Structures are given as C-alpha cells and as structure tokens.
Amino acid sequence: MTVPASIRRLVTQRAGNRCEYCRLSQAGQEALFHVDHILPEMDGGLTVLENLALACVSCSLRKGARQLAPDPQTGRLVALFRPRKQRWSVHFRWQGFRLVGISATGRARVEALKLNRLVILTIRSEEAYFGRFPPSTE
Q1: If residue 73 lies in a helix (H) or strand (E), which one and from where to where?
Q2: Cα 129 from Cα 127, distance rounded (Å)
Q3: Rounded to whole angstroms, how far apart are CA atoms 72 and 16?
Q4: Which of 115, 69, 106 is nearest to 86 (CA)?
Q5: How do residues 29-38 score in pLDDT, each as one tens digit?
Q6: Where do the domains of the chain lie?
Q7: Which of 18, 15, 38 is nearest to 28 (CA)?
Q8: Which of 49, 65, 81, 100 is most buried, by the most CB atoms less than 10 A from its CB?
Q9: Residue 137: what pLDDT?
Q10: pTM reported for the whole predicted model
C-alpha cells in the first residue's frame, strides 16, 4: 500500500529525518528513505503511525517482511527491534563508527541488516565529517 504524503511527513518528522533502525541521516543521501511497516502488511500490520518507521533503503530492503532473526551469539531466533515499542539505547551503542548490539534483539538486528558492512562504516565516517554522526540515540 502507498503511504499518503501526510503520513510520510509525520513519520519523517518523528524520526528526526533518520533511519529508525541504523540512525543514518536522510540528509545527503541520494535515495528517499522508505516508510517501513514494522509489523508487515502481509502479517496484518496496518498503515498507521504506530506501525510505521522511517527506514533507509538498505535497512528496509534487508529487513523485508522479517520479524525474527537469529541472535548470532546464541543462535536463538529473537524478535527484531521495534522502534515504537523498544528504546534504541537499551539494545544498541556506538563503538566508533560500528553499531554494537548489546542485547539479543540488538545483536540480531545488527547481523540481519548487516549494519557494520564496509560501505555503511564509510558513510558514517562521511556523516561525522558533516557533523551528522554520531546521532542521538533516542
């Protein structure tokens, strides 16, 4: 379903113009960020503010319709991070340009979305040059 422009504006504003999964700023990016259904539409997720998150193209495409991913430390399937229901700082922290999962949910998200691949580390260093990194964590 196409997200109405008025809802897109509210989602973008609420997210501070940043991906709610990896915290990348939309400023300076060539591609327009997606409005992601946290609970996918195919699983009954509605197009309502509480179920929508701003997501960079990479996070949106890597997440897809997944709700679970393995914790790389234990191998156990865990729910992926839900920005409307969970606090970012409980599950993640920055270590230089690397994003570190500090909970099973955080570790699963970092691994599932490949949030420390070389290209994103390079983008974060560029973001630091422009004063957009590190982002606030809440």
Answers
A1: none
A2: 5
A3: 30
A4: 106
A5: 999 999 999 9
A6: 5-129
A7: 18
A8: 81
A9: 65
A10: 0.93
